[in-house]
Amino acid sequence: MSETERLISGLTTGSRRLAGQVLATGENRLELLLVELQEEREHTFHIVGLLLSLAAFLTLAGGTLTLAVVVLLWDVSRIWPVCLLTLLWAGVGVAVYRRLRLQLEQWQSFPETVNQVRRDFAAVTRRLR
């Protein structure tokens, strides 16, 4: 076997090994992405279910409380209790909206997959230098 054939053989073996590592890493990252996608889906359905339940029960509680306050203060004033409770419910709505907005701004999808891909990229970049 000549020097050129050995060199080509070594390059071929190295290329196959590198391709195998790239494929194995890609498969691993894809599996990680799929697991995180399933977790995100389950988390989203769970949160939506809780939010719908919360909205329904808070609506019932708010309506009942409003009715109770209006009935209790009917002889004193008919409009002021309704106005004050409307302001209260609007304030609660604004607070919930701000909290929801904050949560959505801080939300990160697939954080582990993104971090792992960044680490892989850094490792490959270091190796190629």
Would you kindly provide a written description of the structure presented here, covering whatever features stand out?
With 129 residues, the chain is mainly α. The chain has one domain. The chain has three helices and no strands. The chain has helices at 3-72, 80-106, 111-128. It is rod-shaped and about 110 Å long. The two termini are 31 Å apart. The mean pLDDT is 83.
Key words describing this protein structure:
mainly alpha, 129 residues, rod-shaped
Number of strands: 0
Query: Taking Cα atoms only, what radius of gyration do you get, to the nearest Å?
Result: 30 Å
- The number of helical elements comes to 3
User: What series of H and E elements makes up the topology?
Assistant: HHH
Please state the overall shape, judged from the principal axes of the Cα atoms: rod-shaped
Q: What proportion of the residues is helical, as a percent range? A: over 70%
Q: What characterizes the major β-sheet?
A: none
Overall domain count: 1
Q: Catalogue the unreliable spans.
A: none
Q: Whole-number average pLDDT?
A: 83
Summed up, what is this model?
With 129 residues, this protein is mostly helical.
Task: Summarize the topology.
Blueprint: H1 3-72, H2 80-106, H3 111-128
Helix pairs in contact: 1-2, 1-3
